[in-house]
Amino acid sequence: MQYVNSEFDKPKLELNNIVSILISSEFLQMDDLLDLCTKFFANSIQDIIKLPIDMSCISNNVQYKIAS
């Protein structure tokens, strides 16, 4: 909600929250946030895959965007 309600005080994407925000932004059809998340994920993938996070909920469509 902070992302929607604030023009300047956007939440910071971090390694520990990127997967949940990525999945939520796709579910809520927040395309701008989804684009930010996929770019962050792609740029940080080496660090993200080291974390004990279940990424099985990431859709094939989002996986394709990350790979692109």
Description:
The chain is mainly alpha-helical and 68 residues long. It is 57% helix and 0% strand. The protein has 5 helices and no strands. Helix 3 crosses helix 5. The longest helix has 13 residues, at 31-43. The protein starts with a helix and ends with a helix.
Number of continuous helical runs: 5
Our measurement of the CA-to-CA distance between the termini, rounded to an integer number of angstroms, reads 28 Å
User: C-alpha Rg, in Å?
Assistant: 12 Å
Assembly type of the shown chains?
Answer: single chain
Q: Give the integer mean of the pLDDT values.
A: 89
DSSP strand content? under 5%
- Helices and strands, in order, run as HHHHH
Compact description:
This protein has 68 residues and is mainly alpha-helical. It is built from five helices and no strands.
Notable traits:
single chain; 5 helices; 68 residues
How would the blueprint of this fold be written?
Layout: H1 2-5, H2 18-27, H3 31-43, H4 45-48, H5 60-67
